[in-house]
Amino acid sequence: MESSRAPHRDPAAPAARHVVVIGGGIAGLAAAHRLLGAGVRVTLLEATARLGGKLWAGEIEGAPVDLGAESMLARRPEGVALAEAVGLGPRLQPPTATTASVWTRGRLRPMPRGHVMGVPGDPAALAGLLSEEGLARLAEEPGLPPTEIGDDIAVGAYVAERLGREVVDRLVEPLLGGVYAGDAYRISMKAAVPQLFGAARTHGSLLAAVRGLQSGQDPLAAARPVFAGVEGGVGRLADAVADAVRAAGGEIVLETPVLGLARRADGWHIRTTGRPLTADGVIMAAPAWAASVLLADESPAAAAGLATVEYASMALVTMAFRRADADPVLPDGSGFLVPPVDGRTIKASTFSTRKWGWTADAAPGLFLLRTSIGRYGEEEQLQREDAELVDVSLRDLGAATGLTARPVATEVTRWTDGLPQYPVGHLDRVARIREAVAKLPGLRVCGAAYDGVGIPACVASAQRAADEIIATSTPARGTARGAGE
């Protein structure tokens, strides 16, 4: 077990409020960092032996790599701001290659520009990606009557009705799959692509809605990189935030699952596999299924809502090739996406050596790439042996690019129940969960299950939870179970 103790405090000084953060992913770490900045005493509990959740900086053949998330949205400020706050500003880097391909209809085809999650403003942008029939269907869209959207609608269902299924199956599905590992025909447009949802409600034509979004972009913002990584791997963000938490006096305790949570007159009682804790407040930054179990007694309504959150599982297969074997064969760009409709096993491949300058510099004799396998409803893929996942990745890579070399090293990382799904009605579900949780003084929830799965969204969710705890005075004392419900 690893922990970092708070510094010595003057016994005559008033006791700082104590908040326990449950979960050591980036959301839990960001919440702890925010609380400490406001003078709150923090204990962070993580069930496993590692911090960071889906952020994991590892290595292969001696070269640093990300074994989880590899980048963050840079045009949204929260992730970049946190990285800068913990000293990683100089190590932030944009991708060195930003062009990608789609492996569909038997060949690699350039990813079109000028789209919003695969939805174009100009039908000509999809020439070559769609069939002639698909392009003809796309051109009919401006003349179609408006589509009733209501309070929410599935991205795939709406886009297919306006533009035809080919646009969804060949482009929207693989792009959304890269974010959520989900099914475009189930994913909420309001939750997953809110800017498109808002524009579609004010335009009769979807193509016109996309053009409106594009014309309204700030030119300066549009010129900035969309994504950012961190030299050595974006997984280092979790390590840097943890270091900052410890330096500020926060306590981090690993390998300590939380077994129970109860509200008493003197605050929250947290039962763990180690010592019991009492706190003025609790931030639940655990996955939805774990939060559901822990909240079952104190808030059956929140627990029931959390229990309905479904997750997708996936595996990442990271491979190191001799650069002389791979570099001349693989196409330019950062990698490619794979539409599920084509029946392939891998759903994407990232050419890390091309995408990140620090990767190329750290391993000059190697070419690092990775494939991802598994979507919502394909949990059986993760039951395959590591060697089988490597072999099927190599077969698909060979079919797509002509690569025949064998890797000199491989690493398979499984993310079981790693990505929460956002079906139609997700935001209403989150609102109901938060409404139920708000009745529990001194408790808040945050993380990928609520407001977005990317790093900035998780950080924003964590900071919201922390700010709400900070804004309350002595959050839970004197409010035993039942008060306020």
From TrEMBL:
Its main location: cytoplasm. One of its GO terms (biological process) is heme biosynthetic process. Belongs to the protoporphyrinogen/coproporphyrinogen oxidase family. Coproporphyrinogen III oxidase subfamily. SUPFAM superfamilies: FAD-linked reductases, C-terminal domain, FAD/NAD(P)-binding domain. The keyword Endoplasmic reticulum does not apply. This is Coproporphyrinogen III oxidase. Its EC number is 1.3.3.15. It is an enzyme of class 1 (oxidoreductase). Involved in coproporphyrin-dependent heme b biosynthesis. Catalyzes the oxidation of coproporphyrinogen III to coproporphyrin III. One of its GO terms (molecular function) is oxygen-dependent protoporphyrinogen oxidase activity. It catalyses: coproporphyrinogen III + 3 O2 = coproporphyrin III + 3 H2O2.
